[in-house]
Amino acid sequence: MEAKLVLFIYAKHTTEMMIETLKASFETAYTKQLQKNLLSFTFTQGEETTGFDDVRALIFTDFQINLTTASLPAGYHNYISDEHMQKILPKLSPGDYSFESILLTLIKQKPNTLSYLKKTLSQQLSNTDITTIQTYGAHHMNALKAAKHLYIHRNTLHYRLEQIKDKTLIDVKTFKGLVIMEILFGQ
At what angle do helices 127-138 and 154-168 cross, to 10 degrees? Predict the structure, then answer.
């Protein structure tokens, strides 16, 4: 089965009981303890018993402690290593972080990753994809104006943006996703 989502959970103050409860609650997920306070759960496509929403509900309602979580798509290893995650999560304020938020944090903390990210993403994106991203950003995320500028239908623009997300795992329809792409491919 193919991985669908990886959830990292970091708690400054953790107990063995909390870790065992999390592991037992998500028995269908592949669990890996990266360090004393950092766990990762990998959810696969066909899981029916415990899903990501159940994980989020348990973390934020049942555990009344401050946790830092990162929800990353399965292919995140192309951009961020587990070692980077071990260094980044303890420095973040408690909360739930998206893939785009983690990438922005990585770019801020390690500016030398820009060239690696640009090289990796350039291999996955066509010139049309990059032009689409630049135009969408130049029109302040207004799909109608960007589509008119590109001489395409609005639905075609949305389709292209979804294809870009499928290729890169970065959702350029979100502000943070677009900021990452603008940093890398801005005009």
Answer: 120
